[in-house]
Amino acid sequence: METQEVQITPMPRIGDKAPEFTAVTTQGNIHFPNDYKGNWVILFSHPADFTPVCTSEFITFASLEEKFAKANTKLVGLSVDGLYSHIAWLRTIKEKIEFRGMKDVEVNFPLIEDITMEVANKYGMIQPGESSTKAVRAVFFVDPKGIIRAIIYYPLSLGRNFDELYRALIAMQAADEFNVATPADWRPGDDVIISPAGSCGAAKERMEQPGEMKCYDWFFCMKPLDKEEVLKALVKK
Description:
The protein is of the alpha+beta class. The chain has two domains: 21-160, Glutaredoxin; 179-234, Antioxidant, Horf6, Chain A, domain2 (Antioxidant, Horf6, Chain A, domain 2). Helices cover 30% and strands 23% of the residues. The protein has six helices and twelve strands. The strands form four sheets. The chain has a five-stranded mixed beta sheet with strand order 7-4-3-8-9, with helices on one face. A hairpin with a 2-residue loop joins strand 11 (214-217) and strand 12 (220-223). It is globular, with a radius of gyration of 21 Å.
């Protein structure tokens, strides 16, 4: 008896244009990423409707939708279930489920129907070593120009860390806005990293000059970036 091979589509990479697709969702048809020009998007997949880890995540995403929206970011979910399954599951979440004090939660962002796995395969969300019939917990950060800026993958059993998703989003936006890089565990208000000097001599001059910039060596220079300045630039009130 021959074993059927699972066809694996190479997943897109950071810096690639987000693969285009049209899809039916719980909020109508979408053309991705064209419909989201000018916005950041978090495109994320979950393994299946009516499963507990996914339910906890959707409640959390829905509760944070306004927070992401204030940071110019749209949410788009996906699983390989059908539209009617999605609708029934989201109704059940609203009417019956409570998680960490969150209840009566309505999911208003689109949830993609992907029973053919076309979109999941385009984005490398099907990982046969984990499951050939369910999408892993993938997260794609797509910028306003439709470019993939970050990718995070989780196994089926592991729920996502939403503080980290938001932190990563704001850090990438801050890097773009202020032409800096962000160090480990950065949050608004922390010092940021600036490009090192092009030579040891130039770095030495930087280190000897008084000012807000602090160079510990030619390759490691930091400066303060005011929290209010970051939030004013990136987050709507």
